[in-house]
Fold this sequence. Notes:
Strand content: 5-15%
Radius of gyration: 22 Å
Structural class: alpha/beta
Helix content: 25-40%
Mean pLDDT: 97
Number of strands: 13
Low-confidence stretches: none
Largest sheet: 7 strands, mixed
Number of helices: 11
Distance between the termini: 23 Å
Bound molecules: pyridoxal-5'-phosphate
Strand order of the largest sheet: 2-8-7-6-5-3-4
Amino acid sequence: MLSHDDALALDAADPLAGWRDEFIIPDPDLVYLDGNSLGRTPRRTIHRLHDVMATEWADDLILSWGRWVDLPTRVGDRLAPVIGASPGEVVVHDSTTVNLYQLVHAAIALRPQRRTIVVESTDFPTDRYVVDGIAKSLGLTVRDWGEGLDDDVAVVVRSVIDYRSAAMADVAGDTSHARDHGALVVWDLSHAAGAVDIDLHACGVELAVGCTYKFLNGGPGAPAFTYVSSDLHATIEQPIWGWFAQADMFEMGATFTPQTDMRRFLLGTPGILGLVAADEGIGITADAGIAAIAAKGRHLTDVLLTLCDDLGLDTITPRDPLRRGLHVAVRHPDARRLVPLLAREHKVVTDFRAPDVIRLGCSPLTTRFIDVYTGATTIAAVAAQSLS
Ligand SMILES: Cc1ncc(COP(=O)(O)O)c(C=O)c1O
């Protein structure tokens, strides 16, 4: 089994190790394995927020809107290469839930004769709830992805990485399968962006959303993103008509005439502090390089899965490194009680997903191999005690 010294040797050889210094880490002994829920705090974010507040807001007041107004598209352009999109195809705004609502509606409007939405019954709750709500208001039918597709399906909603097991979908295959039935797919990249080197163009993806507060380290409640492939920009229509989507917004026109580009997905006044925090988090990922981040992520999760095997922990995360995200899901009957106990008494922060999963997240810019080693051995010891 991997030893404490082996883990230290892996850290010493890690080409990304230096990036950890870019983050505030007040307690180096805390084993933080929850960057899949909330990434750590980048130092740059604190400096940038201070500048924005002390100078752009306090000194320049409303004059700063000149540089703030296009932040949703500028931050989107910074994110685009991280997910295999082009500049002009991504905007950063609102929440994943709101953005998903917009895109599912937009997709249905592109397939007006069809009456069915498909979603996976095990997908993240907000995705299922948004689909159910839209189906109820439009009188459509919801079907489980496992039941297959037919020519009545307007849109499929799928997560790239399963929030519970970390299994990665076949994004290219599922997109093309849906296209064969004339359906669109809205992909949720929440657990994929900043974690795996996904290439939306290469996979033929047309519509996607995702959050920036997990592996992109954008901060708590940081705004989400919307991606629409450029060939749909001219025709796609979204249901929430706000003034930030309006062409010539300051002309205060009588009727809604949307922008012809991705700005047509914007709603109202964006939260600038959240946007600049997202910008810095995304910037670190872009600077470190998604290929290197994804490669370290595969290595960390490989080591963690092997440790779990050696320690007798039961995992449900796929073994193929190209078919999983960056957390490892351990099943334990006492998981609900163990997760807070591990944080409180053993300084190992993980998270719990009902009914019996402990998720161990590996964030390549901040998680060390020694964290993975300490986390796994501590969890195994505490889990064994709980069953004895
Ligand atoms: C797959 C997925 N979608 C959506 C969300 C959350 O959406 P929101 O940012 O709107 O709360 C999460 C949160 O963990 C998630 O895992």
